[in-house]
Every structure is written in structure tokens, then in C-alpha cells.
């Protein structure tokens, strides 16, 4: 069976680009984290790699003073941040156009990711996310389930990463 005849519904991995998301980078001093979280009406996890949901989105701690925020209500977030700025200096930058997100799923998704990521992907707990590299591209890897991941990639690196993923996927399919 060649790749054109392969039933991709039963493929070892599925790769799908998700709709564009509204994303923000938030930088605030660690000592202001809790107050900023209250001002924005969301949890800002303290530990790198921890995620938290809120009414209109999700946050991810990327560093001691850095969070990624995904939201369906960007205007409300910007208004709350603007209101808090005088007492809680911070940087809130919309980065929606910078990245794309791929959903990677399937029984061999760990093998697929291992082809370009030096991390022990299996050790990444469900519900966590990390900034890492895939080949030479910086990515954010979200583990949503045992065989379900999201990968945020800068648009400029997306063709390179997609090419590597397609090659690895073809190798996995050929091994069926």
C-alpha cells in the first residue's frame, strides 16, 4: 500500500493545523504575579510548565516572569491589563500573528515527536506544556492527553517543521 492509498483515519499520527488563536505574551515581576492574576481574573501558574484554564481561555507559565495567554475575549484582557498598569507595571503583547498551532495525535505521536525533539516527551505529564525545540525551531509543546499534543511554531519556522513532521510521518506509515 503506498501513501496515496493509505487510510489516514487509521494512520499512526494525524497532523492538523488549528484555527488561529488570540495569544498574548505577559511579562510581570514574580512578586506581582498574584495581584496581576486577580486584576486579569485568571490564574497565572507559578511553576514553569503549569497550565490553568479560565472563563475565556488558558494560561501557561513559560518562565518565572512570563506567561502565554490564549483567550477568546482579547478586548476584555487588554482593558483589564490597561486598568492595572499603574499599580502593576507589566508588558502585555499580542503575538497572535507570530505563531501557528498544529494538533498532533495518534498512537505513534510520541515516536513522531521524538524525531526532532530532544526532550523525553513521554515524561511530559498530561496537562503540562513546555518551551522546547523541534530540530532547530523553538516551539511550545502542550500535552493534552496520552496521545494528544499541540505544537505552537513561529510562522517563519512552520515550513521547516511541517517538512520534518511529514517526513517522519511518512516513515511511520511505511513501517506499518
UniProtKB/TrEMBL annotation:
The root-end lineage is: Bacteria, Pseudomonadati, Pseudomonadota, Alphaproteobacteria, Rhodobacterales
Q: What is this protein called?
A: Sarcosine oxidase subunit gamma
Q: Which InterPro entries match?
A: SoxG, TrmE/GcvT-like
